[in-house]
Specification:
With 166 residues, the protein is an alpha/beta fold. The protein is 39% helix and 23% strand.
């Protein structure tokens, strides 16, 4: 039998980046990976991110920090703005992992209410889960709050996770 991770973190990269930036600080992704490993015993941290060649160095840095990158093809709208919405990919992967690997714990890193059905699915399947919100609690989606799942706001641990240039 294959050895599967017991706890997986599902990270919406755009939501994480924009949420923390909106609070006026920069996340140290290496510290964050270490923190979720220690705090939530995360074996595998899947980060869902749009694929753009100009960010190759970022992707390498994330992989070197211990993340499993799951890319979404980026398309451009009429104004040339990149769109790489990863919500459906994240949900599909999480459900596949439940059925194929039997995960027992999950961490969702996002403030987006589109993930409330996934959280409810986890709760129905008795998967222990928590939401780590890049946004303050008052800005975290009411849909996520209504699930009753514990929500930790990243701003509460900013002192541990903020990037400090060397």
């Amino acid at each position: 039998m294959e050895n599967h991770p017991a706890t997986i973190a599902y990270i919406d990269a755009a939501n994480l980046h924009k949420g923390v930036a909106g609070l006026g600080w920069k996340l140290d992704y290496r510290k964050f990976r270490s923190w979720i490993r220690q705090k939530y015993t995360v074996d595998e941290a899947c980060i869902f991110i749009g694929l753009m060649p100009k960010y190759a160095a970022l992707y390498t840095s994330l992989q070197n920090s211990g993340y499993k990158l799951i890319f979404k093809e980026v398309v451009y709208d009429g104004t040339g703005k990149a769109k790489g919405n990863c919500d459906a990919d994240l949900v599909l992967q999480a459900v596949r992992n439940h059925f194929e690997m039997g995960i027992t714990k999950a961490v969702l890193v996002s403030s987006d209410g589109d993930y409330a059905p996934l959280v409810n699915f986890w709760l129905e399947k008795s998967i222990s889960c928590i939401v780590v919100s890049p946004a303050p609690l008052k800005k975290c989606s009411i849909l996520l709050k209504k699930t009753g799942v514990p929500i930790l706001c990243l701003n509460d641990v900013k002192h541990k996770l903020s990037y400090r240039p060397k």
